[in-house]
Every structure is written in structure tokens, then in C-alpha cells.
Design a protein that fits this description.
CATH superfamily of the largest domain: ANL, N-terminal domain
Structural class: alpha/beta
Largest sheet: 9 strands, mixed
Number of strands: 24
Number of helices: 20
Strand content: 15-25%
Helix content: 25-40%
Length: about 550
């Protein structure tokens, strides 16, 4: 049994009485659809198509093979796979075993993978030889030396049969597999926080809380057995897993269509060929799609979006002017989504007025999503006034995994999670996100903890002070600028190479470096990031000249 912070008994009883928690495993949707429509398509992955029965069969085979290798309920796993069908086959197999994985993004590198392993102490690692960290065995050997419990490794693209994920998904001994998932109110898997602190935090998600979010999302978003959902963002992202994401589509009996990236040159062909009806994007990708669609204009002989009914946009602030371009350029409805891996999800509804859809990020899933919007002194503010959002509810965490210090800051005495988002609520309950409190940069939907990058920069012998700040960017919403005090002659390419050698994910690399003689300080002696942002705003041209 994995330790985590549970909901109080009175709230747990209330959530069950209201029908939010139904005490079923997260494999429920797959199992039900396999029984009802086994031959229906569940996953389209390039030229490969997987029916519900095939997903059930393959995940059973993998689960049986892992059980034979000693994996058991209560173990943890570190998984890193790209946008391929195997991502879901592995996820369902581990759920059936009661092994709780964390799904690292494929963009994550050695630094992040070490941090997750240090927290989880996994018994199982599943990864891909296509990832630079696992192209050879050096990093894998380091991981196994540091974590004696890591006794089982499976790799996609592996030549050795004993470590081949592909073989473990295919070779069955013929005996029937009986699932033994963790209890519905126990941890099913871990999500990744995009938080503001230097250490990546893990979010324990139970079967009950996550399944409720999936079911409610699928209903709100109108997902049916006819839905063909394009997953072109990283499959491990909470947005495309459960809002309603792939799991919402499996719940309803639809089909998940996978693409490697949101590149319009790729996705337009996939949307047309696979008759995609629904897609989910972050704002920078939407802009790319809109620009590409508008360039095609009336010259296109075939409308690639003829089947597309709904585009969801979430992950970062979405400009109203861009939102209004979606129906005209893509010929589909728009739905804004504002959610977090910690729990709370908000949607504009499909029947909302255009003004709500274009100008807000919607309202919560559940009647029991409790929201408080507070000023800097912690007092509740009225509707129409900006404040920091705090929330609790039937699918919002009560505490990060093994993070007592962070939990003391993030969770108040009443169990409300403080999100760090500055929002305005209107009279109808819709939220508009207007900023962030936490020291976090939202680079096109990818969250960067400034402290993490700063700590790495400060390890460089020639850096004496470092501050990473978010600066406005028309395409991504925000980019990052590293202000550096250090030895004369220090330049951006040197620090960029240093960070890459440390194993940091590419999206966390500062977009620009700026070298200054002295850091501005606040009255209490902390680096004044407001002044740094103002300094950038006053001389953005100077920034562009920095290597």
C-alpha cells in the first residue's frame, strides 16, 4: 500500500453518496467497452489499429509477464514512452497489476528521471531506446546502481529478448490473467506537477478521484462512441489523458488517434485521413494551425477539417483575438479548458454563449468543487475582482507525495489547494485566468520551475547569481530569460551547453541570457524579479542581441 494524504472521512462519504466515487478501477472503461464492443477501434497509431479486445489482450499479456518477473501490487514504476499505442498498453497493464507508475514526458532527460526515481524508488523501468538517455546503457546502469529495487527493465527497440517491451506485449504462456488492481481509494498512478519549486513533485491520483474526473469530463465534452480524438500533445500530459483525453474516449467507446506532435503539416493529414472529430491543443499550437489553415485558404481542394467538430484549448492563457479565429479558420467549435494535474478542471460548455467561450476558461466540473479566490492577505474577494485561486473537491489532491514542506505551503488548514493562479470569477461562475503568483514560467503550456533552472546555473563555477524570469512572447505566451551575474566573458552558449550536459529537458533551457553587473534586490534582500521584467520590457532589443 502506497502512503499518501487521504480525503477526510466525512468528505469521502459525501463524494460516494453523490455518486462521484463509484469504487471501480481505472481500467473500468476499457473492460466495459471490451465486453460491449470488442471489435470497435480503440487506438489508431499510424498504420496500426488496435481494437478494444486487442488493447485488453495485449495489456493482459504484459501484466502477466511482469507478474511472472516478480512485480506486485504496491510496487511503483517509472515509465517514459512517446506517443505510441504502447503508452496505453503499458498504462493499463500496470493498473491491472496494482503497480503505480509515473509517466515521464518524452522530453524529460536524465535530471528529471533521476528526481522521479529518487522519490518513487521504482521496481520497474519502461523506456525507449529512441530516447537519448537510453540509446546506450550508461544512464540505465547509473539508475540501477542508485536504486537496488529497480530489478526489472523493459525497453522499446531493445535487441535483448529479456528486456524487449515488444516481446513482453506479445509472448503469452496461454494462461488466463486475473487482474489484481489496487483498491479504488488507493493510488492508481502519479501525475507530474508543473509547480514552482526546484524539485519535481508527484501527485498521487486514486482510481476513484481520477475516474470521476474522466466520466464527468466525457459527459461535459459530449464524447461518444463516434468520437475520434487526436492526441498530438504528449500522451502523459493530464490534459490529453483525462480532460476528457484518451481515458475519456475509452470510457465512451471512441477511438484515440495518435500523432507524434502538433505540427500542422503532420496533423492536417491525420485529421483528414482518420476523420478526426475532436482535438486538444495548447495556444501556441493553435496559432500554428490557424496560420497554416489560413494560408491554405480556398486553394485547398479538400477541406482537411471536414470531420473536425470540436477543438479544445488549454494549458496556457489563450488570447481572445486568437480564440475568435478558430471557428472561421477551422470550421469547428471551440472549448476552453483550464485545469491542473493536481485536480481541478474547468470547461466552457458546448452550449455557452460565444462571449463566454471566447473570453473565459469556463467553470468547474463538479458541484462539489469548492473555490476560494483570495487577496494577498488571504481574504475572499467578490466576483469580478482578481485574486489567487484555492480549491478542494472530489478529484483535487490533499497533498503531494512525500513532500511535507511543500504541502505545508500548498494546502491550507481546511484542505484547500492553493493553485498560484490569479483568476477573476464572473456572476455565472466562469473563471478568467489573468496571471500567476508562483515563480513559474508557462512556456506554451510547458511549466518551468524557475528555482530548478536557477539552482543548476548556480552550480557553474563562473556564475555568482542567477534569476530566471518569464517574458512576454506572442507565439508561446511566455519565454524565459536568465539574468546572470558572473565572471567577465561568460556567454550564453557556454551556459546552454552546461545545462544540456546536466541533463535538463530542452524546453527548460533559457530562451535568452542577459548578463548584468548587479541583481536588483527587494527591501528584504531577495532578487527583485519585477524589476528584472521591467528592465527587459524597457529594452527588449538588447535582449535579442544576447546569445
Amino acid at each position: 500500500m502506497i502512503e499518501f494524504t487521504r480525503w477526510p472521512d466525512d468528505l469521502a462519504a459525501r463524494y460516494r453518496a453523490q455518486g462521484y466515487w463509484i469504487d471501480a478501477p481505472l481500467t473500468r472503461g476499457l473492460t466495459e467497452q471490451t465486453a460491449q464492443r470488442p471489435d470497435a477501434p480503440a487506438i489508431q497509431c499510424g498504420a496500426r489499429s488496435f481494437s478494444y479486445a486487442e488493447v485488453e489482450r495485449r495489456s493482459d499479456i504484459l501484466a502477466a509477464n511482469l507478474r511472472a518477473r516478480g512485480l506486485k501490487k504496491g510496487d511503483t514504476a517509472l515509465v517514459q514512452l512517446p506517443n505510441l499505442a504502447e503508452f496505453y498498453l503499458v498504462f493499463f497493464a500496470l493498473l491491472k497489476l496494482g503497480v503505480a507508475p509515473v509517466n515521464a514526458l518524452f522530453s524529460h532527460k536524465q535530471l528529471e528521471l533521476r528526481a522521479y526515481a529518487d522519490q518513487l524508488r521504482p521496481a520497474l523501468l519502461i523506456a525507449s531506446r529512441a530516447h537519448p538517455a537510453f540509446a546506450e546503457d550508461a544512464f540505465l546502469a547509473q539508475m540501477q546502481a542508485a536504486h537496488p529495487a529497480l530489478r526489472t527493465v523493459l525497453l522499446m527497440g531493445e535487441d535483448a529478448p529479456s528486456r524487449s517491451l515488444e516481446l513482453a506485449l506479445e509472448e503469452s504462456d496461454g494462461t488466463a490473467f486475473r487482474p489484481d488492481p489496487s483498491a479504488p481509494d488507493e493510488v492508481a498512478f502519479f501525475q507530474l506537477s508543473g509547480g514552482s519549486t526546484g524539485t519535481p513533485k508527484l501527485i498521487p491520483r486514486t482510481h476513484n478521484d481520477y475516474d470521476y474526473s474522466i466520466r464527468a469530463s466525457a459527459e461535459i465534452c459530449g464524447v461518444t462512441a463516434q468520437t475520434r480524438f487526436l492526441c498530438c500533445l504528449p500522451a502523459a500530459h493530464n490534459f490529453v489523458m483525462s480532460s476528457p483525453g484518451a481515458l475519456g474516449v475509452f470510457h465512451a467507446g471512441g477511438c484515440v488517434v495518435l500523432a507524434a506532435s502538433p505540427d500542422p503539416a503532420l496533423c492536417f493529414e491525420v485529421v483528414q485521413a482518420q476523420r478526426v472529430t475532436m482535438a486538444a491543443l495548447v495556444p501556441p499550437a493553435v496559432t500554428l494551425w490557424l496560420d497554416a489553415a489560413e494560408r491554405r485558404g480556398s486553394e485547398a481542394q479538400v477541406d482537411p477539417f471536414a470531420s473536425l467538430e470540436l477543438l479544445q484549448v488549454g494549458g496556457a492563457n489563450f488570447a481572445e483575438a486568437t480564440a475568435r479565429r478558430v471557428p472561421q479558420a477551422l470550421g469547428c467549435a471551440l472549448q476552453q479548458v483550464f485545469g491542473m494535474a493536481e485536480g481541478l478542471v474547468n470547461y466552457t460548455r458546448l452550449d455557452d454563449p460565444e462571449e463566454v467561450i471566447f473570453t473565459t476558461q469556463g467553470r468547474p466540473i463538479s458541484p462539489d468543487d469548492e473555490l476560494r479566490i483570495r487577496d494577498a492577505q488571504g481574504h475572499d474577494v467578490p466576483d469580478g475582482v482578481a485574486g489567487e485561486l484555492a480549491t478542494r473537491g472530489p478529484y483535487t489532491l490533499r497533498g503531494y507525495y512525500k513532500s511535507p514542506a511543500q504541502n505545508a505551503q500548498a494546502i491550507d488548514k481546511d484542505g484547500f489547494y492553493t493553485t498560484g493562479d490569479i483568476v477573476i470569477r464572473d456572476a455565472q461562475g466562469n473563471l478568467r485566468v489573468v496571471g500567476r503568483v508562483k515563480d513559474q514560467i508557462n512556456r506554451g503550456g510547458e511549466k518551468i520551475a524557475a528555482e530548478e533552472v536557477e539552482n543548476l546555473l548556480l552550480r557553474h563555477p563562473d556564475v555568482t547569481q542567477a534569476a530566471l524570469v518569464g517574458v512576454e512572447d506572442a507565439a508561446l505566451g511566455e519565454k524565459s530569460c536568465a539574468f546572470i551575474c558572473g565572471a567577465s566573458g561568460l556567454r550564453g552558449p557556454v551556459l546552454r551547453r552546461y545545462l544540456l550536459e546536466a541533463g535538463i529537458a530542452d524546453y527548460k533551457l533559457p530562451d535568452r541570457f542577459r548578463f548584468i553587473d548587479e541583481m536588483p534586490l527587494t527591501a528584504v534582500g531577495k532578487i527583485d524579479k519585477r524589476r528584472l521584467r521591467a528592465q527587459h520590457a524597457a529594452s527588449p532589443r538588447d535582449l535579442a542581441l544576447q546569445p
